[in-house]
Amino acid sequence: MKIDDRTEQLVRDTLHWVVKRDLDKLDAALKAFPDETARKAALALVVAISGFVLIDLHNARPTPDQVAVLAAEIGRMEAWASVSADEAASFMNAVVAGRSLTERLAPDDIVVLAFVVAGSLLSARPLPEGQWWFNYLDKVEAAIEAAG
Fold it and tell me: CA–CA separation, 64 vs 57, rounded Å?
């Protein structure tokens, strides 16, 4: 997947407000995407990021039980964004299975859910001292681009 520089920056800005748990600034960041094409590119990137991190966390595709454990934690941590454990589990299970996100999720909820889950996964992952979620994101994006 080739990551467009403009899309990447908008995605990073949006993920920043997820990590900071600022709903108003998250909403403003989501409105900064200029058009439907940019929003679709951003969603594709955030889904790819989530999929990569899920596999990286488990060194393989996570099982539904492993996803349920993560989803419960995301539901607790991300209550500020009204993301439930069930929604997070549905999203992550769809991502790792390569299923359509709209199969079990309302289309209007997918964008916020995708950003919140991705941000939560990035910020909750244990990192070496001195490393931050955005350093890990650099590695994730490099791997996504290398994979094509």
Answer: 14
